[in-house]
From TrEMBL:
Keywords per UniProt: Mitochondrion, Transit peptide
GO cellular component, one term: mitochondrion
Name this protein carries in UniProt: Uncharacterized protein
A Pfam family that the UniProt record links to this protein: ATP11
Superkingdom of source: Eukaryota
Main localization of the protein described in the UniProt heading: mitochondrion
């Protein structure tokens, strides 16, 4: 148990959001956010229909790719190269869990990304942001859907450029 749900159930959504994010702020091995019920339901629906996707992680002058796989309420994230070599042995780097315990009464979902290895907290925070926005934003999700259901039409470079533009405008807002 990560937090005492009984205590959170007595709070309003803004306080829950603050408690959840503050609780994770000083942790080196986890990052967290919250989602309104409608965004949570949309992400789960879309991730069920398109469970795999790749995300760039930038370091120094370049980037490498991470692969995520959605299963039930969790995204497992690993290095794309490790997955290509041996899918069953690819070590998870980040596990993103979607908690729906407060969905019905508070219309709020808790999201936690556990940093297992190979990425630092800042990289994991950015990866979580990219993952969520790629399943929320219609234009980005079009790329996710193509990757899963029409791979011959998927253009990684077009996705990468769109992601940069969308995340830049999100951080400015």
């Amino acid at each position: 148990q990560i937090v005492k749900l009984e205590l959170l159930k007595n709070e309003q959504a803004p306080q829950i959001r603050s408690i959840w994010e503050d609780f994770h702020a000083d942790k080196d091995d986890a990052v967290a956010t919250t989602l309104p019920a409608d965004e949570f339901q949309s992400i789960v629906k879309r991730a069920t229909a398109a469970p795999y996707f790749i995300f760039p992680v930038y370091r120094q002058e370049g980037f490498f790719n991470m692969l995520c796989q959605f299963q039930q309420s969790c995204f497992l994230v690993t290095y794309l190269e490790a997955f290509k070599e041996d899918p069953s042995a690819a070590p998870p780097c980040v596990a993103v869990t979607l908690y729906d315990n407060l969905l019905e009464k508070k219309e709020l979902a808790l999201v936690r990304a556990d940093v297992i290895n190979m990425l630092d907290k800042k990289e994991s925070q950015l990866l979580l942001q990219q993952l969520l926005i790629s399943y929320q934003n219609d234009k980005l999700y079009d790329h996710v859907n193509k990757f899963n259901n029409q791979p011959e039409q998927f253009d990684f470079e077009a996705y990468r450029l769109l992601l940069k533009n969308v995340t830049a405008s999100e951080t400015e807002a």
